[in-house]
Write a structure and sequence with these properties.
Elements (H helix, E strand, L loop, with lengths): L1 H13 L4 H33 L2 E6 L1 H5 L3 H11 L2 E8 L3 H7 L9 H8 L4 E7 L3 H9 L12 H5 L8 E3 L3 H11 L12 H12 L1
This protein binds 2'-deoxyadenosine-5'-diphosphate and magnesium ion.
2'-deoxyadenosine-5'-diphosphate (DAT) binds next to loops.
Length: 206
């Protein structure tokens, strides 16, 4: 009500004596207010969801054997993504057949499962803006022979059957894979509160 009266006063200032113009502009005001407010709310809602995008990245058995886990984690940290889940495990054939269910008919499927069960894997969930697409770019082409230098596969591997790392390829794929590999309770929600850290440092310095 206060906003309506304020708007009326402003209109009166610009259109003195023209009651009709003032009235017609005023009738659109609550709508503009309502939709403007809703649009702003939707914008902030979608941008905060966007920052919370999550993906599954896994260091495959060859990556673990070759002691590449640290370097791969470092690339994601350095890029600015947030680690919200991490575990090392010997994956079962059941889990992998679910993970790679879309590849069941491929000629390499059985050797893929043999390779993926040949040793432990390190599975991670990374969070951040556009993390799914950016991770795919960072990981590089499926076939390392075609992967660009600077990507994980382009820097650390030469053959498609030993391509070191996995990253989800879509929003649906990431959701499915995260649920498959992690229980909800094993994913952490933590805030990146650097201000607090520097305040604490200042306090302890005093
Ligand atoms: P990506 O891992 O890049 O998402 P994908 O989902 O098509 O690729 O395949 C899953 C894995 O299967 C891939 O990382 C390595 C293996 N693979 C794919 N194509 C292959 C091929 N032609 N020969 C052997 N292994 C292959
Ligand atoms: Mg894939």
């Amino acid at each position: 009500m206060l906003q309506r009266r304020l708007f009326h006063t402003i209109l009166q200032h610009f259109y003195p004596g023209n009651q009709e113009t003032t009235k017609s502009l005023l009738s659109g005001f609550p709508l503009a207010l309502r939709y403007g407010h809703r649009a702003a709310w939707n914008r902030s809602k979608s941008s905060s969801q966007d920052l919370r995008e999550r993906t599954l990245v896994a260091v495959k058995p060859d990556g673990v054997q070759r002691r590449l886990v640290g370097q791969i984690i470092q690339r994601f940290e350095q890029r600015g993504f947030k680690l919200v889940g991490l575990k090392m495990l010997q994956a079962s054939e059941d889990l992998l057949s679910e993970h790679y269910c879309e590849l069941k008919m491929k000629p390499f499927y059985h050797s893929l499962l043999r390779y993926m069960t040949s040793g432990p894997v390190v599975v991670m969930v990374w969070e951040g803006h556009n993390v799914i697409q950016t991770s795919r770019t960072m990981v590089g082409h499926t076939n390392p022979a075609e992967a660009q230098s600077g990507t994980v596969r382009g820097d650390f591997s030469i053959h498609v059957s030993r391509n070191v790392v996995h990253a989800s390829d879509s929003v649906e794929g990431a959701q499915k894979e995260i649920q498959l590999w992690f229980k909800e309770k094993d994913l952490l929600y933590w805030d990146c509160d650097q201000t607090k850290t520097s305040d604490q440092t200042k306090t302890s310095d005093v």
